[in-house]
Amino acid sequence: MALMFVRRMIPFRALLPIALLASLAATAAQPGLKTEFVGGTLPEVQARSTARLDLTGPESLRFSSGKTALSIPYNRIDTLEYGQHVSRRIAEAVLVSPLLLLSKSRKHFVTIGYEDAAGRRQALVFRVEKGDIRAVMAGLEARTGRRFTFQDDEARKAGQ
Fold first, then answer.
1. How many domains does the structure of the chain reveal?
2. 33-40 and 68-73 as β-strands: parallel, antiparallel, unpaired?
C-alpha cells in the first residue's frame, strides 16, 4: 500500500517543477511591471485593478489593465508625483507578535498626469511594489525629462 502511494506521488513531484517553470515563463512573457491601478480619470478602467506598466518603449509608456490598453507618449506627460502611505502593522501585531507594532508598512504611489489626444487633462494613479519603485521613478524621469514632485517630506526622503 505504501509503495502504491509513493508511485502516485512521483509523477506529481516531477510535474511540480515543470508547472512552476511554465507559470514563470507566462509571467515573464508580459512586458512591464505588475502594479495596481488605484484610480484616475479613465472611466473604462476599474479602480483597484491589476495593471501592467511598461516603460521600455522609446516613444511612449504602455499601460494595460484587463481589456483596456493605453499608450501615452512621453512628451505628453507633464506631471509626475510620488507619495507613500505609512501605517503601523496593528492587525499583524495582534495576531502574531506585539513587536510588529515597531515596524511600519509602506505603500508606494505614482501619479502620472498627461494630456490626451483630444487635449483633455488625464491622471493615472498606481501603487507600485517596493522593489520596483526606484526603477519606475528613474525610468519616468529619464523618458519624460521631468522631475518627480513629492507629496510630503517623508516621501521626499524615501524617493531620493
1. 2
2. unpaired
